[in-house]
Amino acid sequence: MIHATTNWRLETEGAVRRLQAASAGFLRETPLWKLPAGAFGLEIPQAEIWLKLEHLQVSGSFKARGMMNRLLANEIPASGVVVASGGNAGIATAAAARALGVRCQVFLPGLSPEAKRARLRALGAEVVVVGEVYADALAACLARQKETGALLTHAYDQPEVVAGAGTLGHEIETQGGLPDAVLVSVGGGGLVAGLAGWFERRARVVALEPERAPTLFRAREAGEPVDVEVGGIAADSLGARRIGAIAWELTQQHVQSALLLSDDAIRAAQQWLWKEMKLAVEPAAALPLAALQTGAYRPREGEKVCLIVCGANVDPATLA
Predict the structure, then answer these.
(1) I want to staple 187 with a disulfide (CB 3.0 to 4.6 A). Which of 57, 75, 238, 259 is the partner?
(2) How many helices and strands, by DSSP H and E, does the chain display?
(3) Domain of 223: which CATH number?
């Protein structure tokens, strides 16, 4: 395994120090909101639900952590940085590039929403729309990187990106102590990898995927990463065709459960977060709540469960 000897807790601590020292206040410490289970209609005595409101992060998602860590850890050539993304990683890379004063080119698939494209242009990025799904955009991005020599920022499968995502786990533990369980959405796996690498088995990290984008679930069935068909309500954020190599390694070590959720359940949870809590989030951010509402994940009595609310790059009109 490529990263079998990596101490991911040390890598994450290094990312924390790098980001604190060099990002000039770029990142935000996002709120950790602790509520009784009853606030969500769950009848679980003494259970506590924590919402980690990472959708309030710079660029509207957790991706800002890993993208800035990647840029700070490497020399950036005159050709700048290049990334393929369903939207959020591109937005985060563009925001980090603007903060550092370097060029940024973002390759998007056709399924990416116009709201994310507009955000990228506002950040000064050059936007290239290629094909229909993330894999199409990634292939074009890799070809361009070879042509220009730009620094490649991968949406989820680079050590600096994973360690940067892991700083979210470090922040949760610093703010609220150690949760019993952490529920997290999975696309290519950068976030679940970062959290698994940080918490190891000190907290139960639960991987959640849409039924129509089951990269980790199918990899576990096959015993190795495999390509899957991608579609559904969260495909713009969770639309990787294959689980990342680093995520595969870390989830094999530290993640016991990989659960699937329907588009209907995801949409219902997204609407609930808006109507009941006035949290405007994208579908990918609603999977943890959907897991509770459907009973896919059932907290134990007295359990502290942290839901990662991972992104808010959504057209508000879709929440009405």
Answers:
(1) 238
(2) 12, 10
(3) 3.40.50.1100
In a shared domain, residues 205 and 129: no
With bands split at pLDDT 50, 70 and 90, how would you rate the model's confidence at 245? very high
DSSP conformational letter for 29: -
Are 119 and 49 a contacting pair, CB within 8 Å? Answer: no
Looking at the 3D structure of the chain, how many domains does it have? Answer: 2
Residue 112 has pLDDT above 70, yes or no: yes
pLDDT value for 133: 86
> Do 230 and 290 reside in the same domain of the chain?
yes
Domain range for 145 is 63-152
Q: If you average pLDDT over residues 59-73, what whole number do you get?
A: 96
Bridge pairing between strands 304-308 and 181-185: parallel
DSSP at 316: G
What span, in angstroms and rounded, lies between the C-alpha atoms of 9 and 195?
10
Please work out, in degrees rounded to the nearest 5, the angle formed at the alpha carbon of residue 148 by the alpha carbons of 143 and 153.
70
Q: How does pLDDT run across 253-296, given as a tens digit for each residue?
A: 999 999 999 999 999 999 999 999 999 999 999 999 999 999 99
88 and 164 together in one domain: no
Asked if residue 219 lies in contact with residue 244, where contact means CB atoms within 8 angstroms, the answer is no
pLDDT digits (tens, 9 = 90+) for 4-33: 668 999 999 999 999 998 877 899 999 999
The answer to whether 265 and 294 are in contact (CB under 8 A) is yes
pLDDT exceeds 70 at position 2: no
Q: Smallest Cα–Cα separation from 313: which of 91, 27, 68?
A: 91
Q: Which two tokens stand for residue 109?
A: 């698939």
> In what helix (H) or strand (E) does residue 209 lie, and over which residues does it extend?
strand 204-210
- Domain closes at, from 119, 152, 185: 152
